[in-house]
Amino acid sequence: MSGPTASGPIALGALDLAALLCSRVCHDLISPVGAIVNGLEVLDEDKDEETRTFALDLIKKSAHVASAKLQFCRLAFGAAGSAGAQIDTGDAEKVARGLLEDDKIKIVWNLPRELRPKNQVKLLLNMLLIGVGAIPRGGTVTVDAVQGGPGFSITASGVNARLTQATTDLLIGSPSQPVDAHGIQPFYTGILARDCGLTISGAVEGENVVVTTR
Question: Fewest CB within 10 A of the end CB: N or C in the chain?
């Protein structure tokens, strides 16, 4: 990884970027896939009906989580079509709700359904991950379009909403430490923003964290 320059953010080699993103995706999938394997082992070894019912429920829930993660990652990190392809923001909303919305997190989606360049949609989904990560105790994540341009605004509202300096530095492409698998997602978000010709910023405003591209 090269260091910051006066001309802009640091550069990360293509091989390192691909490897770190793969590590991130694998990390996300290890838990649900491991739970499926554990459940199958219980079914194979334990004949107690109550235990088998519990194992089947675990397998079902874990398979649902793994599927939601894969569908989200396909749009947020994958190629999602050929160069110049467009993605329906309705599909982005569907995978975002499928993975991120639960009894702790509510998503308010104020974007119209339309086709957008794929990197804009990938940027949007990655910004959503930043927003959800900013409210560890739960809350509401609101998705808006930025007036007069192709950018987005993500507002995460909740108790103890936070955006660390390390995350902010990764978003703008000037981290103080080498980028690792933990930091690759916000770093990649910044790369996507710049590829779309946008500037990304993040700030804490009271109990809100606002991440904006314009």
Answer: N
